[in-house]
Amino acid sequence: MSTRDAVRLADQTTFGPTEALVTSIKAKGATAWVTEQFALKTSRYTSGKGAGEYHQYVDRPDFCTPAMEPNCFRDYISTDPLMWDFYRNAVSQPDQLRQRVTFAFQQMFPLNNAEVLGTYGFRNYYNAMLDGAFGNYRDMLKKITLSPLMGDFLNNANNDKGAPNENFARELLQLFSIGTCELNLDGSLKGGKCMPTYNNETVRAYAYALTGWTYPAGGAHPNGCWPSGANCRYYNGDMVPIEKYHDTQARSLLSNVKLVAGHKAPAALESVLDSVMAHPNVAPFIGRQLIQHLVSSNPSPAYVTRVATAFNNGKYASFGSGVRGDLTATVAAVLLDAEARGDSVPAQGGKLREPVLMFTGVLRGLNGTTDGEPFNWYWGGNLQQRVFNAPSIFSDYPPDYPVAGTGGLVGPAFGIHNANTALARMNYLLYLIDWGGSGADASIPGATGTKVNLASFTDSATDAGALVDRISMVALGRLLPSTPRASVVKAVERWTQATDGNNWKTSRVKRAAYLVYASPDYQIQR
Q1: At CA 20, angle to CA 293 and CA 46, rounded to 5?
Q2: Would you kindly state where each structural domain of the chain is located, as residue ranges?
Q3: Which residues contact 325 (CB under 8 A, 6 or more apart)?
Q4: Whose CB among 56, 343, 378, 436 lies 3.0–4.6 Å from 4's, allowing a Cys bridge?
Q5: Which residues is 241 bridged to in the sheet?
């Protein structure tokens, strides 16, 4: 396996290549390395305080008391502690593929801390995603549907048959399963134009079918629970049925699935899941998004077809159970496809490296460590991608965001890329490489600060060309093109012992690292 292909695989399956990782992938080969990754399960969300107390207090009007400040909201209510875990795991834990696939699903099923509160609930939600990343998509949909956080976020918790809220039902169809237009297996529009997959009556039928679910038992509130007979807001466990609020009339769903009169809420949920999983759109709709998150923004129709076929068959080579919706088979098909592997990338291949993957990729490539603290309001805010705080259910950016001047290509991450965020990328590199990163915040448990370690690269600094090539190989899997390489080498050669004293080698490493990671060759993942 070439270094180029090994770095491509690392970009697609991890939060950034390292020299040791590239060596390991080359020695094992793509199939063996991916197989090994499917078996790993080490990363978890554990930070934050409380195990449900935030939704169990009854003796005071506000949960946070003066004695619990100044970090009560952060530690018990916000997603900040989960964000620390996310970046610590992404930079340091070995189960990289599980985390990358989970990150894709986190973007496909986003929540935010502006609409729902409770650190423990987010911890449960994202740990469930880690658990289900290589399971079956039907099980993932069921878990999302029964999540009390999602029920709260999209108004399906305590949804009453008398006036059902349609929010979750619509997003289940539009964003979580089949999309809005009829698709061919290759992801193209049937008949060359958008033929709607559903109408308002369909959404209404799904909203009725999904009524009658309330929070799991265990919550309490000073004002009691509402509506009568339902449970108070609480996020430990799945939602539970409350039949008096469930609509029992006969309903027609997609894929010729029927709800008979007199059915109960659990049976209706199974029928809802059956109907969307049987729909021909689900395989290309979900498969194409996984390709976009992991490999390329503009996969060829043939690539989408092969991934969608693996989803439908539940099998790809030796991967998968043979059950429709098998995610191990689907992910293997995404990563081991001919369009994803090898040194040659299709002309339309690749994708803009989104901010999160730049944050982690530079840290990993330059032997860095992080406690996650800088990536919320500061760097996450500056580059418009704050993990666990997407601005809406449509996530940080749309999967079909058009890239101007490309003749119809899309670039999802370009939806948050502009002059300001482009400059912020460069400032992030300065922060890590020239400004020394940031130190530990004593208020954060297990804080380490966020820094890179350039010491191992100084061995190559005597020869500027060798240094630039070494960093290029770990960042890109190839050398910079000859013209920019010559310019970078010339810039690095400026530092000598005569001009910079005993620090000249470190100064060379800093310049080489900055210029390689700032280059368009790195910013565009190919």
Answers
A1: 60
A2: 144-280, 455-525
A3: 136, 137, 138, 277, 282, 311, 314
A4: 343
A5: 213
